[in-house]
Structure formats: C-alpha cells, structure tokens
Design brief:
The protein is an alpha+beta fold. Helix content is 32%, strand content 29%. A hairpin with a 5-residue loop joins strand 4 and strand 5. The chain starts with a strand and ends in a 6-residue tail after the last helix. Helix 6 runs antiparallel to helix 7. It contains nine helices and 14 strands.
Length: 266
Amino acid sequence: MLSLALTFFPHPRVVLRPETQPVYLTSDAERAALLAVLGLDLLAVIAFTREMAATPAQAFVRMLVQRLRMRELWVGAGFALGREREGQIPALARLGEELGYRLHVVEPVLADGEPISSTRIRGLLAEGRVDHAAELLGRLYALSGVVLHGAERGRRLGFRTANLRVPAERAAPANGVYAVWAHVGRERYPAVANIGIRPSFDAGERLLETHLIGFEGDLYDRPLRVEFVRYLRGEQRFASGEALAAQVQRDREHAMAILTEHVPAE
C-alpha cells in the first residue's frame, strides 16, 4: 500500500475561531519537504472551509474510502473528525468495520513524562529555549525567507547582516541573540542571529538579522534558512555603534564555541 498524509489548510481554528489565530511551526512547503524526507508517498492538503467543517464524519470517511481506496487509518489518541467532532475513535472503529478499513490509534510520544505537542513546542520557542524545542522536534527549529534590502548599518559597523521579516502567522523564538546555522543554497555557515526590534536604532518592525561568519557576497533577494541552536543573550540597547560592534564580536566567539560542538548531520 501507499502511505498518504492528510492535512488541512488553513488550520481549522482560523475558520471556526478567527479571533484566536494560530501560529504555525512550518510553512506548507516546509511541512511537505519534511514529510517527503520521511518517505511519504502522497500528501493531500484539503482546503478547510465552513462547508468542510459541517461535513458529517461518516460522509467524510466514506469519501476517503471511495476516492483514496483507504485501507488503514492512523490517528492520534483523542482524535476526532467531522461535524461537531462526531467522528471520535469508537465511531471511526465502527465505520472501519462497515467500510473495510482498519483503524490504528497512536499513543502520544512523551518527553520528560509529558506528551510532545505543537503547543508545548511553541511555548518553548516563546521562552527562547530553542535547544529544548529542537529535542522535541527531532530537528533544529528554522525560519526561512527572502533577504530584504535594509539600512546597511551592520556593513558600516563592520558586520553585515541578512535580514528577514518574521511572519505574524509563524511561531518564532523570543527576542534575543542566538547561535544559528544559516543556509544559503547548498552551503551552510555558522552565524549569529538577532530577532527583535533593534532598540539601539529605530525600534521598528520585528526582524531576524543574521550575521554569517565566513560568508562573502551579496545576499539581497536570495532565499535564506536560519536554524536556531542556542540562546545567547537578550536583546539590548547600546549607547554607541562601537559598543554594539564590540558585543557582536563577543557574540561571534560565543556562537562559534557552541556551533563547533553542534554540527548537524548532513
């Protein structure tokens, strides 16, 4: 049989409770790439609408059997689908006997005695605990984007940065300075990243500013992926550009000491 992951976009909460906008741990493209690495055969992304939310569980499951020839359904403990969550596990098991598929219930994976969940991971990121979040994810947490044209203050102070916007719909680490790996095309560079509002300057839009160590060249308008390894310090205001440059040098040295011991597998 082929393996297929079925997911919805946008998150059902966006449609059913728009006043509580969720934040995502991955973009659609990032999630597809992560699933592909696991050996998944097919990925189905279904548009979640109010009409979809009103679909009875039996009708939705029957559609899966008819259109996808579903023979096994794998769900997490506590899972439910369909109108008013009527398709809970006992109901899905009964439908399996009727429609000819086998139901498998996957128990939560625990870490430190607690279930690993997206809510728990988002909480760790909000506290800046990116190393602990990586342990639960099984990978380094990352943000990606296209490098913006900026004010070039870093260039004038002796350390160039590549700046990315932090999308409002993405979970992001707490403001501060981090040791990170920066990916440009197929190349990976040790780097220091500051996420925040730049209190020493304009205290404006929240950005992810990344100083790549050992990189020479122009990154404007190029894709950049930043993987967070360890929190270094909080974001702070400096009295002068010289004081900021001196701190960046200390951050570089601190980051290199950490990254030398945390080189991800190829």
